[in-house]
Amino acid sequence: ADNPTHIYKKQGEKAEITCSHQIDNYDQILWYRRSKNNEMKLLGYMYVNANTEPGVTVQIGGEKYTWSDLDFFSVRLEFNVQCLFTVTTTEAYFGKGTKLTVLEPGRKPVQPKVQILNPSPNECRNQKDVRKRKKTLVCVASGFYPDHVSVHWQHNGNNVTNSTGVATDANAQMMEDKFYTLTSRLRVKYEDWDDEHTFTCIVTFFDGEDYVDIPAEIKDKTKPKKIT
């Protein structure tokens, strides 16, 4: 397990990430940096002794089999760090990773504003098959910094899974005002588009200390009088 999941630090501050496991006979722990385009770079590894890759400004310490610490002393960019447990001749396991963000000078975390945009009244008008008629809800999280957010949807208080019509941006986009925006889309059945069904978009934001849920619900569910 990688601990913690998210970290904010100012430039020059030390960030410590701990990786631990309880898998018998797994005697190597490797540290990787994952970029936003999912490229993986080996930072170093723990096997009897700590070893770092050339040009990597980290310190690694710990005990074989039980835990390993990764200390960053000179941080200059944002990236994800993951640890990998392995033994030479068997399957390897990745931890979930820690997202480390170096805050820009003078900036503090700012929570997102969240809203759900109404679907187009013309959507699915020309779909003859009632079973295939869908409405698309768009959840917009905007004005936040940094980009430590996740999104999930609820239908009548129950979580909606990705396999049932959810599509969320892979990464938040930084806008001209230096704040981030992220969108998520939910496809719902046309027959569910009434006042008996509640759709909620919940954006979870890490503010440096706690995870804060910011919910938004769709307000107007007016249907067109007739679908042709």
Automatic annotation (TrEMBL):
Pfam family, one: C1-set
Superkingdom: Eukaryota
Keyword Repeat on entry: no
Alphabetical keyword list: Immunoglobulin domain
Domain spans labelled Ig-like: 112-219
Leader sequence residues: none
The UniProt record lists the keyword Transferase: no
PANTHER family: TAPASIN (PTHR23411)
Protein name (Swiss-Prot/TrEMBL): Ig-like domain-containing protein
